[in-house]
Amino acid sequence: MHIRGDHAELVVGGRLDVVSAADARTVLHSAVDDGAGDLVLDLSELDSWDATGLGVIMGAHRRAGRCGRTLVLRGVPPQMQRLLVATRLHRILAIEGGIGVESLPRV
């Protein structure tokens, strides 16, 4: 997993899973704490995530809210969009461009 960017926009790549969760959490929390306004999390380079990785995203979302910021997901890959819909988290998280639920393939 790699994360690059600053306190306004971060690009996450590789796998966001139990192995990388602690490092990702540290970077995301620092970005939330050090910035102002929306924090854009670009997931277009993300290969996969597991429940732990999704928990890191949700934790950053909650932390951003407590700091008066909004965590905005950008470039969510289709397989991850399906997971967000299945868990109904697409209704909670700010997703740039939204998710066209009707256009996602059935699993």
UniProtKB/TrEMBL annotation:
CDD domains: STAS_anti-anti-sigma_factors (cd07043)
Pfam families linked to this entry: STAS_2 (PF13466)
PROSITE patterns in the record: STAS (PS50801)
GO MF: anti-sigma factor antagonist activity
Coiled coil (UniProt feature): none
Regions that span the bilayer: none
InterPro entries (alphabetical): Anti-sigma_ant (IPR003658), MlaB-like_STAS (IPR058548), STAS_dom (IPR002645), STAS_dom_sf (IPR036513)
Superkingdom field: Bacteria
STAS domain boundaries: 1-107
The family this protein is said to belong to: Belongs to the anti-sigma-factor antagonist family.
Protein name in the entry: Anti-sigma factor antagonist
